[in-house]
């Protein structure tokens, strides 16, 4: 079992930055792909960014060049650095994890593949 706890959300003006953290516990963290998803009110959950155990990253087009995902396998923590924030980035951001088989070359963007989820943290960007 993997437990995930997010932190770092808040209110920020457009153009500002926030750094989200997701602390994992319960199993060998380094075997898991980690990702951030978000869900805005009235919208479906969407993929934001993902990272493999070895550090390969993948981003949604809407956040590419603005957001950076990283992980510290010693501290069992994954981060999402969000720069140049826009009002449309406002959402609840959730951390997720799944055990990634060795044959996969990049992390999944399908939320249904992720079987561990955090409780979410609110990010609000004002215009």
Short description:
It is built from no helices and 11 strands. With 127 residues, the protein is mostly beta strands. Strands 2, 4, 5, 6, 9, 10 and 11 form a 7-stranded mixed beta sheet that branches. A 4-stranded antiparallel beta sheet has the order 1-3-8-7, with no helix packed on it.
Task: Work out the strand percent.
Answer: over 45%
Total count of strands: 11
The biggest beta sheet reads: 7 strands, mixed
Distance between the termini: 40 Å
Mean pLDDT: 94
Query: Which word captures the global form?
Result: globular
Q: Enumerate how many helices there are, as a single number.
A: 0
Helix content: under 10%
Oligomer: single chain
Write down the secondary-structure element order: EEEEEEEEEEE
Rg to the nearest angstrom?
Answer: 14 Å
Spans where pLDDT lies below 50 across 5 or more residues: none
Structural class: mainly beta
Distinctive features:
127 residues; mainly beta; seven-stranded mixed β-sheet; 11 strands; globular
Topology at a glance:
Elements: E1 3-7, E2 10-13, E3 18-25, E4 32-39, E5 46-51, E6 57-59, E7 67-72, E8 77-82, E9 91-99, E10 116-117, E11 121-126
Parallel strand pairs: 2-11
Antiparallel strand pairs: 1-3, 3-8, 4-5, 4-9, 5-6, 7-8, 9-10, 9-11
């Amino acid at each position: 079992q993997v437990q995930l706890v997010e932190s770092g959300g808040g209110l920020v003006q457009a153009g500002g930055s926030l750094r989200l953290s997701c602390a994992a516990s319960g199993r060998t963290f380094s075997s898991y792909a980690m990702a951030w998803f978000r869900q805005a009110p009235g919208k479906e959950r969407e993929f934001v960014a993902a990272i493999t155990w070895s550090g390969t990253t993948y981003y949604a087009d809407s956040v590419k060049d603005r957001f950076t995902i990283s992980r510290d396998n010693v501290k069992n923590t994954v981060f999402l650095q969000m720069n140049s924030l826009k009002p449309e980035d406002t959402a609840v951001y959730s951390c997720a994890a799944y055990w990634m088989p060795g044959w996969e070359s990049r992390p999944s963007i399908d939320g249904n593949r992720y079987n561990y989820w955090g409780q979410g943290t609110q990010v609000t960007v004002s215009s």
